[in-house]
Design goal:
By secondary structure, this protein is mainly α. The protein is 51% helix and 7% strand. It is built from eleven helices and five strands, in the order H-H-H-H-H-E-E-E-H-E-E-H-H-H-H-H. The chain has helices spanning 2-9, 25-41, 65-74, 79-89, 93-97, 129-141, 168-177, 188-199, 204-211, 216-220, 227-260; strands at residues 104-105, 110-113, 123-126, 149-150, 159-163. Helix 3 crosses helix 7 (168-177) and helix 4 (79-89) packs parallel to helix 8 (188-199).
């Protein structure tokens, strides 16, 4: 029965998906993990084996600059601001959703994230000029404690005392309108931030701190160098080796000249 569930679930179309994309293996794995926990709590033998879990590697999607511009152009608010903040800070979507006015320091240009299971997750993140402009505008318009409050519903007014919980429908609609064929998740904008930061020369320790990772190994899963980045790295190594050879040749030449004097 469990085997039938996992195979059927992974083929299902995502709820409210307009592009025909299927449920992610990671989603099925979370369901299997929950079922296994229930069996354990009931002190029953779990039928879920480790081999039943799908491999989750390779699901990362890096958004190109062309896709980003098309996506943001078609994104409605508050999705556009939320997506831009993720792209410029690497924050998790839920961290942006729950961003509070009191945790934003416009003078120091930082955002403090108090949420997370680990100490590393609770961190202070610098703002880019773009993020500063967005949060300055959002705070001036805020009617409650949240930067992104729960939106209006049919027959109801906006709920400024509650944070927004999801932008799934708006995200899928923006992807569709932008004509982006390969679907991506909102979370992939965080992966995109990490990859671009690494390509810009941000060292892995600093990047881990910015992303709120406990270990460097976690950060390495988010960094996906492009072919051009690899070529640039090879060119840097080649230049370094050439410089070292030149320095060595100079030192040998200098020693030889001293011995002849």
């Amino acid at each position: 029965m469990v085997e039938h569930f996992r195979l059927a679930r992974v083929k299902e179309e995502r709820r409210n998906a307009s592009d025909g994309s299927a449920v992610a293996p990671a989603t099925v794995n979370r369901a299997l993990a929950t079922l296994r926990l229930i069996f354990n709590l009931l002190e029953l033998k779990s039928p879920i084996r480790k081999s039943m879990f799908f491999k989750e590697e390779g699901n990362t999607r890096i958004v190109s600059m062309k896709e980003e511009l098309a996506y943001l152009k078609e994104a409605s608010q508050p999705l556009r601001d939320i997506a831009t903040v993720i792209l410029h800070t690497g924050m998790r979507p839920e961290e942006v959703f729950r961003m509070e006015v009191r945790n934003v320091d416009l003078t120091r240009r930082t955002v403090f994230n108090p949420f997370g299971k680990t100490k590393a997750s609770k961190r202070t993140i610098p703002m880019t000029n773009t993020v500063h402009e967005i949060l300055l505008r959002r705070i001036s318009e805020a009617k409650g404690p949240w930067i992104f409050c729960s939106p209006e519903r049919p027959g109801h007014s906006a709920q400024p005392d509650r944070p927004i919980k999801s932008v799934r429908k708006a995200h899928d609609a923006a992807v569709s309108r932008a004509g982006i064929e390969e679907h991506f998740r909102l979370y992939d904008l965080r992966h995109t931030y990490a990859t671009r930061a690494a390509q810009a020369g941000v060292d892995v320790l600093t990047l881990a701190a910015l992303l709120g990772h406990t270990t460097i190994q976690m950060t390495s899963r988010y960094v996906h160098p492009t072919d051009q980045h690899k070529h640039d790295a090879t060119a840097k190594l080649e230049a370094y080796n050439a410089e070292e050879v030149f320095k060595y040749a100079e030192s040998v030449s200098g020693s030889l000249q001293k011995s002849l004097q």
